[in-house]
Amino acid sequence: MPRTGADPGNPPSGWLPSPDGGRPEGRSCSHAADLPPSAQTPDRACAECRARGWTWTRLRWCATCGYVGCCDSSRGRHAHAHYARTGHPVVLSLAPDESWAWCFADELFLVRTP
Q1: I need a labelling partner for 5 at 20 to 30 A (CA). Which of 74, 75, 97, 108 fits?
Q2: First to last CA, the chain
Q3: How many Å separate Cα 40 from the centre of its chain?
């Protein structure tokens, strides 16, 4: 459900586009206001990789449906394949040393606001 009256510079969820020196300033993500503050999943495995006997590098959590897939550096690239199949735009990193989201649709990183 879209939030109304939200300030686009400070989404209620606490997610903002990450500065990116290689891209124009002022980019925005139309999905940031609807993101949860963190991934909400007990799954710490890419089920599609596990079924094939593959390993993965890092995991991504779909903010729309909760699907857990492997990152683009992994053999299966299942998080990206999930986006291509479903159109679900944003994934949050499940890596313990990462605290960001990626919007496939708007092609930008999102970081939590302090």
Answers
A1: 108
A2: 24
A3: 12
Average pLDDT of span 7-16: 58
SS (H, E, C) the chain: CCCCCCCCCCCCCCEEECCCCCCCCCCCCCCHHHCCCCCCCCCCCCHHHHHHCCCCCCEEEECCCCCEEECCCCCCCHHHHHHHHHCCCEEEECCCCCCEEEECCCCEEEEECC
**pLDDT confidence of 2, banded at 50, 70, 90?**
very low
pTM above 0.90, yes or no: no
Q: Which of 30, 44, 1, 35 is nearest to 15 (CA)?
A: 35
The pLDDT tens digits of the residues spanning 20-76 come to 766 667 788 889 888 888 888 777 899 999 999 999 999 999 999 999 999 999 999
Backbone angles phi, psi at 29, to 5 degrees: -120, 120
Check if the beta carbon of residue 75 is closer than 8 Å to that of residue 67.
no
